[in-house]
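Contributing new complexes? Match this layout with S-adenosylmethionine.
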Amino acid sequence: MKKNFEKTDENVVDIYDISYEGAGVGRIGGKIVFVPKTLKNEQVKVSILKNTSSFLIGKVTEILQASGERKTPKCPYFDECGGCDFQHCEYKTEKQMKIDILKNQLRKVGFEGEVGFVESDKRFGYRNKIKLEIRDGKVGYFKAKSREFLAVESCVIATPLINDCIKIIQKFLQSGRLVGAKAVYVKQVEEAVAVCFLFDKTREKVLKNMPNFDVFGEFLVYFAFGEVLESNSTKIVKVYGDSKLTLDLGGKEVEIEVSAFNQINDFIAGKLYDYVTDFCKGKRVVNGYSGQGFLTYKIAQNAKFVYGIEYQNSAHKSAEMLANSFKDYKIQNFCGRVEDCLPEILTKDRIDVLVLDPPREGCARQVLDAVTLGKIEQVIYTSCNFSTLVRDLQVLKNSYKIESVKIFDMFPCCCVMETVVVLKK
Ligand SMILES: C[S@@+](CC[C@H](N)C(=O)[O-])C[C@H]1O[C@@H](n2cnc3c(N)ncnc32)[C@H](O)[C@@H]1O
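Output block (do not edit by hand):
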């Protein structure tokens, strides 16, 4: 007879594998149990947090036999926080887990080749943008796999300057000078930092009664009214600070939009852009989901022509300013959906290389159909979500062969992978 699991912390589990979400995998009475923050070959005591018909989710209460690769997490919130998955091991173990997870996923599309890995220069202090929830005058993240608030005073994967800023935000909120903000984004660009408080749309009246922001010193402060920062319908107002967020590109100062997407690990973003750009030399290129146009600008330095496609207005505006600063480069930016703009470009021009860097949701079916029906020689697909990547590769593999796969470790400590797949017609 199968042994039943216990809700107590008395379940002893041998971890024999790692799931695609980075949790250890074991069994209790024949049923699979996922135990986050454990390693292969460990024996742990587990209490059960969730029981579904096909699996359990457990939490470690005691490590009975630790892996030799186990390490003390740097972050005091690691056990509870939903932000990081891999601080309990060495970086080389994290790297191998990520490669194994991706290889397993890519088997679903018949890929059995090697998976390259570009390491981040920093495992901690790399994140140039964070979003903190606000509850009762405190900032924090959500606990793992829940919407339960966890107050934090620091974040070890965020840059030191962002951590300085967290302290100021905390002080500012506790003084009771700001009411109604539900979250705050902190974004660093070079040495400048923008703090953006997020409010519901109905809260615009807070603009009539502004608190004193002097405590923020050199930092810039914005208010955003909407659901999320990066949406066309969110209204952004700068409420404090004279300077602008700017980036030095090729000796020119380029303005950055606070509400537009940016890659969160500067070192890896640079490596990734160099890698993608190499495929585009002398070619006619479409850069789909082009954000503020940094990659478009890099590609254009050596390509014959580049089209950028981006649907968020503020990101498109940034990309246009960038293109206008470098008029020698042959760039045309479209403000619209890739689903609509790509087919239009393909009917008018012969494209050699298509670069795709969609959001977590992946590409719409219309995009994939336009690609498979077209004559583009090479597709470079960059993804931050291997589930949608695999889904999209299932379609693309009808007309394309996977040439290479590389993880660019944009998110150390987290089970999120920035993957570049190179496909050839
Ligand atoms: C992962 S980001 C990539 C940005 C850019 N490649 C970079 O490196 O900064 C995805 C971008 O696609 C945009 N986007 C999302 N869905 C889109 C769509 N259907 N059509 C065009 N752009 C879209 C988002 O606004 C975001 O800027």
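Reviewers usually confirm one structural detail per submission. For this one: The mean pLDDT is 95.
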